[in-house]
Design brief:
Length: about 160
């Protein structure tokens, strides 16, 4: 089903798809940055996760899925202004439509690419799932942009 020469596609050569090449990339990063360099990059990701978590707590319209996060994955909802008066009685099926609408605008504008998903085992409607990565190294300006852009794209949503 590939439209290219698949003989060099490592994804077809093992059960875990591209894991072998991921290991090579990690090894090359360790060689290039060294142990302390990689430690610094990973620490930065955790610092940025703490930073954006605090910013989301302070910004009206954003609600965290959990009060605290222990990793580089931050999950949250954006509640548009016209839906905030409903408060806690906001129907999950209505809230579940917000993230997909914002994501559609993100993709159309080419401004961000953040995933969303529900957690049906906990009866949680679609929420944004921000996964912070080491490269390129995120900074405060990036985190502020993410929040501002989601807010900008979601402010006019009416359901």
């Amino acid at each position: 089903d590939k439209f290219y020469d698949a003989s060099y596609d490592s994804g077809d050569k093992s059960i875990q798809c591209g894991r072998k090449s991921d290991t090579l990339k990690l090894w090359l990063q360790l060689k290039a940055y060294g142990r302390s360099g990689m430690e610094s990059v990973v620490n930065n990701v955790y610092d940025m996760a703490k930073y954006i978590t605090e910013k989301l707590k302070q910004r009206s319209g954003f609600k965290l899925v959990l009060d605290e996060f222990e990793s580089n994955l931050i999950s949250f909802w954006f509640i548009p202004p016209k839906m905030r008066t409903i408060g806690e009685s906001l129907a999950p099926e209505v809230l579940s439509k917000v993230a997909p609408l914002i994501k559609k605008q993100m993709m159309a504008n080419g401004s961000l690419m953040i995933g969303y998903q529900p957690l049906s085992t906990k009866q949680l409607p679609n929420f944004f799932r921000l996964s912070l990565t080491c490269f390129p190294e995120p900074n405060h300006k990036d985190m502020d942009y993410i929040i501002d852009e989601i807010e900008r794209l979601g402010n006019d949503i009416e359901l």
